[in-house]
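Example noted here:
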Amino acid sequence: MPPVTAGGLAWRGARREDAPVILATLNALAAADNDPFRWSLAEIEERLAASYRDLDNDYLLGFEGPGEGALRAFAEVDVSPGDATVARAILLGGVHPDRRGEGIGRELLAWQIARGRQKLAASALADAHVPAWFVVHMEDDGPKTLARTYERAGFVVRRYYSDLRRDLSVPVPPASTPDGTLRLVPWTPELDEPLRLARNDAFRDHWGSQPRTRETWAEYRTAFMPAWTFMVVDDAPDVDALLASPDTDDETAAALRAGEPLVVAYQIASKYVEDFEVRGFTFGYSDNVGVRRAYRGRGLAPVVMTAGMRAMADDGMQYAALDVDTANPTGAVGLYAALGYEKQHGSRMLLIEL
């Protein structure tokens, strides 16, 4: 591992009790870089509590001053246990605005890449002959110095995303009711596992998307809004046809044989209260929208989305918001435009492909 010596900081791994200082540092970075979001304490605590994250070795925290003073640099390397067709090391971190320009960021990124190589080499996919990526994200209008740091390290832009919003003071258009054996339902705990399976099926043909395991599915729930989350369930699916289809994954097949409910379309929503002040309005956020491949072309995405938008409006939200891959293969960009969504910001994914 390359040493991090710039800035004269004292370095160590993370501890769960570091969540408040990590939160303060990440939000200081977000404010300085004019990011349209802020982190919550619950989000940081959730990340530090994940059993598959090695706090001693996957994190590097740099403190200034005698003993452990103020946190001035932070790095995280995240390799998900659910990755199947691409092995990804996702890098998060940065240097506090008060200590930028000292070369700390370049050394910290070199440490992240080295740790990422270790993690990828030790992963379950190491011998699977699949692509391996280092991944970073940044806003389109993020600091040019940060973009140059990534470029010097070998990162290239591979994907663009649009941050969209829809004014909920404009009446939400009516959506057709699912026909036949299809039924629109709100989220319930009993449908959470069928929802996970639907998400994995819906996103299997999306660029770079990887399955969510039960463990990783349980994460990222600190802002989850069950009352805004809707699904379409097929009460009488053609089990034989689905089992015969090469598109049906093993977990879905097992659930069908066991007679479990089949979620075929969904909209998962969250409420990111910390972002309201930054963006200047209240909003409900659609974290994920999808339709199983066997059920596409039936107009199910507008059904779940309009149900979610109405629920957000009923709870007093001014806007509905979401992000979309500009090269989404399912026609989502056109769907969102037809529902009244308009672009507000943009972001990008940068990769080093091994």
